[in-house]
Every structure is written in structure tokens, then in C-alpha cells.
Amino acid sequence: MDVVLGIDLGTSYFKAAVVNRSGALLGLGRSAVPVGDTSGGTWEVEIDRFWHSIKTIIDEACARGGVKPFDICGVSYASQANSFLMLDADYKPLTPIILWPDNRGLKNDNELNGLWVDKEYPDITGMSFKGSEFAIAKVRWFQKKMPELWSGVRHFMTISDYLAFKLTDKPIGDSGTASLLGIYNLRDSRWWGKALSALNIPESYLSQTSRPGTVAGITASFASEYLGLISGTPFSLGGLDHHIAALGAGAGQISGLSESTGTVLAFYQSPVSFKPDQLSCLGPSITDGEYYRLSFNDNGGRGVEWYRSNFAEEYSLPELDNMAAGISPGSDGLIALPEVFRERDLSRFVNVKASHTHGHYFRAIMESTAVSLSSLINRACPEDENLRILATGGGAGSRIWLRVKAMVTGSDLITSSSSEPAAYGAAMLASVAAGWFESSKDAAQSWVNIKEIFTPGKNSRKELEKWLVEYQKAVKKYE
């Protein structure tokens, strides 16, 4: 049986999906990202553990789908950004894979700060973000704190670059994940020489980039010997997970807007013109000359995971979902301030009563996230009402959360036929590489359908606005 493989290199989980010609997701493999001890602020994945996880999810997806790895006839991926490793001249890894939450990045560095305040920065890169989460901030740390290691570096690869390199034996990568590094000239689709010079990163260290969706090569010996894929399997470059998840959920077919409630909250809009602003970033669409816009908020899905792990470990997330579903809007006065996970206790909850249950706390977190999403939507689409927004990310699996988001944002939240849009979107790109479709748009038209629409409902707008006023007062008072 012919199938294609989509790999999702997420922050919390790696996933693999095998999909047949009709678009049926036959099997899904899933593994928690094998990050080491993070108590000291480092977030690292050892190379052998990375590849063990990739093999495990592919084998699991194939086993669940009743196929073998050699049935796969196209491969692509979706990826987190700003996670990377460094290699020597022989492409031997000198570091583990360092994930973007790693906090060792330099916060005060003359060259970095000079780059970030450069007037050209947003106009060249399409973004205005800066911070220690950026890979280049951690590269600067290695340059200054571990100069002996840096002296042996000859290659810098993002996590998706490394996947592409090992599968194809070519140092290639996509411009979508590259653009989030802050050193990529998005207008001209090439590395930004001025930034590389300032940060002492030779361009020869970096992968050759092409637009997401580019059929960039075929699988080589490692893919065959370690993963069981047939050598010569077509390989397509993927892109940033939020972008590819939007494609997998039907962006461009059902709607040009999507939200992702994962570790962070993201709002996606496409197509847009190249107009950088201070609150979002631009990225390259699959079509030449087109771009997407992404805005982020840290008040995402991490809150519900934090609550369960610290205060309700005896319950599963679906069980807590059911509890939240039984709570009325407004959580009986309980308010969760943004990013409740900042503290170890419940101090970021306001109006706490002894009568409040797990369901109240869980729903309050969902309502807080929905307000943050509403803010992202209003900034991106200030003049639009009654929007249709595709739901992606782990939060899309919660029907009560989708109802809350629809109610608070005043928009329709739409789930598609795929339960794993990032891996599914990657499979779409793989289907083009396999020659099944001329474009990912054709794949989406054939494969993607609306599953369910969550509307704002009949809740009193006056009551909702009253609650929002109380929420904003609480945030202003306690933040």
C-alpha cells in the first residue's frame, strides 16, 4: 500500500502520520520529546535519543496503519523553530539538540542588541521579536563561554535542517524555520550577510534554504539503514509547525485564519503583504511572493498541563475537560491571570473560594487563554467581525475549550477532518513530492473537510462584556 509520511517536530511531542492516497490518516506515532533534566534551565535532546524517538514514532505509525516503512513514497515535516545543534567539518554533532526554551542565551550582548535595534531588522527579517530564546542568543553564549567548542564548529543546523540532512545527505533547510532565527533576509530569500558578519557566523556554516513545500531531494542511506525507508524516496521541505498545521487544517481552502493552542498561543493569517510590525512576524508561504503573519502569546496550553501536573495529577486531561464543561461561563467568579504557571502555587488565581473545584480552575485557565487569543485576533483583524478560524494545536482536542474560545472571541472556531494537522499538513507536502498532487492546495481540496464548527452561541453579550471588564480589572490590579 502506498502511503506518505508527515513528521511533526513539536516542542512537547514528536509525531509521525502515515496517510494514504485518499487522505485517510492510517496510523499515528507519538513520543514525548526526550529532553533531559531541565531543572538548571537547559533544554537538550541527546542525538541518539532524538533518532530513537524518530524511529519509534515512524514504526508506531506504520504498525498502527498496517503498513511498512518501505511502503512510504514521500516524506516531509513540520517543525518547531530556534532549536538547533552545531557540527564539525565532518558533520559530526558537537552539541546535543538545544531546544528553544533553553535559557542560557545571552540577554545583554552588544552585537545582538545592535542587530535587534537596527532599523533594517524588521524590514529585512519580517520580524521585530528578540530574546534569549533565539538560537543566535545561545550561539553567542557558546562563542563567549565555550570558545574551544565554537572553534571546531563548521555547521549550524536547526532541528529540521538536521532531519533533512540525515534523510537526504544534503545540508538543506526551509526558509520558514530559517526566518524565525532573525538572521534571514526574508525579502530576498537568503541569509542576511550584515547580521552574520556582526555575529561572527560564516554563511558557509548554514544550510541552503528553499521555500516550504519545495521538493528538495530523495532519501539516502541513513533513512534506509536506520529508519527502513527505501533509498530514493522523494523528500519535500516542510516549514514552521504553525504554518504547516494551518495547511493541514485547511488554510486557504476553509479559511485563511487559524489559531494554535500548544505550548504557546499563536494566531496565523495568510496571505498577507510584506508589512512588518512590532507585534508579529512574517514568514514565507508556499507560493512565491506570498507571506503569512504570525503573532504569539505565552498564555497558551502550558497552563492546563501545569495545573494537572501540580494539583490534579490523579485526573487525565479529558477528565478535567469534562469537569470544566459542567461549569458555567465566568467560572463562578474565579479568574486565572495570564500564565498561571509562572508560580508554583495558586497565587495567580483571583477570587478564590473554598467551593471552587478542579473544574472551576480548569475552566478559568481556558477563559484566560481565550481572552489572550481574542487580543491576538483583534490586533491582526481590527475591523473584522464574525471570523472563521481554524483550530489547531493540542487545545483543538478540547471541545469545551473551543466553545469558550468561540464565546469570548465572537468568532467561529472550526475543526477539520484531521486530528493532527501539523503532521497531516506535512503529509500533504509529502504527497506532492510523491507525485500524487500538483500542489498542496490540490491535496487540501481533496483531503480536508470541516469536522465541526463552534459558534459564539446565544450567551448574553452584555453578561460577557461585564465578565471581560472584571477580568481586565483583575489583570491590571495584580500584574
Notes on the protein architecture:
The chain is of the alpha+beta class. It has a domain at about 5-240: ATPase, nucleotide binding domain (Nucleotidyltransferase, domain 5). About 35% of the residues lie in helices and about 20% in strands. The chain is built from 17 helices and 24 strands. A seven-stranded mixed sheet has the order 18-19-17-16-22-23-24, sandwiched between helices. Strands 3-2-1-5-15 form a five-stranded mixed sheet. The chain has a two-stranded antiparallel ribbon with strand order 4-7. Strand 10 and strand 11 (about 190) form a beta hairpin. Helix 11 (about 300-310) runs antiparallel to helix 13. The longest helix has 23 residues, at about 360-380. The chain is globular. The mean pLDDT is about 95.
Secondary structure elements and pairings:
Blueprint: E1 3-9, E2 13-20, E3 25-32, E4 44-45, H1 47-65, E5 72-79, E6 84-87, E7 97-98, H2 110-116, H3 120-125, H4 135-145, H5 147-151, E8 155-158, H6 159-168, E9 172-174, H7 175-179, E10 184-185, E11 190-191, H8 193-199, E12 208-210, E13 215-218, H9 221-225, E14 234-236, E15 239-240, H10 241-249, E16 257-261, E17 265-272, E18 281-284, E19 291-297, H11 302-311, H12 317-325, E20 335-336, E21 349-350, H13 358-380, E22 388-392, H14 399-409, E23 412-416, H15 421-433, H16 440-447, E24 450-454, H17 461-478
Helix pairs in contact: 10-15, 11-13, 12-13, 13-14
Comma- or semicolon-separated keywords:
24 strands, seven-stranded mixed sheet, 479 residues, Nucleotidyltransferase, domain 5, alpha+beta, five-stranded mixed sheet, single chain, globular, 37% helix, 17 helices
